[in-house]
């Protein structure tokens, strides 16, 4: 009976994650973990979750069409403001995006001819060169391996109710809830945006993106495209070092969610096996 209760309690936990250069962040209902490997140790920080969890009637309202999109982007904003790493990354991406558009505009005006036409095309649809840079960074740097490790660790927990290096090793690096799957809809909206000369669209496009994801994201076609992107563009097979960071990070987060430990300013230092 006790084992059944524990199993039911474990089933309610839903974890999100985010790979970054040098480490992994996980997000639980009540806490978040941040882990990285340096100086021959694995450092894991546990912080209380800064994300508002709607309850009661607010939980139901947050699932209504359109309003659920408002809640989603509000949570994303809180996540950006609550993590220095994420905020710095976001600002960096915005700066790079602006520079790319400016350079493409300048190049198209200066060069002219076929090359200028190509640059002008990319200036109109800046999402295309930006995605190329994004996919290259994800696939050919350690971020892609950490991204794969993040998925493997979460999948191991979802299957076994616990996270071990051995269990995570056998998991797929693809995950149906991967946030990068929303890129499908970001690209689709970005392609039509240059043709929409309507000021409110600057905000409404985010609603369209997220609503399309909510409605179509679990269809076979969407999952198939998302899995293709994960396999070939946004994840790489992690090594034991990246996987160990993910496992230790998620295990510390599980301990916090189970009440076995609390948040702390000082990180837990773990001696890696690999």
Model description:
The chain is of the alpha+beta class and 274 residues long. It has a domain at 58-247. The chain is 61% helix and 12% strand. The protein has helices at 2-11, 57-61, 67-82, 84-111, 113-124, 127-140, 142-160, 165-169, 183-192, 201-216, 220-234, 240-257, and strands at residues 16-20, 23-27, 31-38, 41-48, 264-270. Strands 1-2-3-4-5 form a five-stranded antiparallel beta sheet, covered by helices on one side. Strand 1 and strand 2 (23-27) form a beta hairpin. Helix 3 crosses helix 10 (201-216). The chain is globular, with a radius of gyration of 20 Å. Mean pLDDT is 87; it is low at 1-9. Keywords: Membrane, Transmembrane, Transmembrane helix.
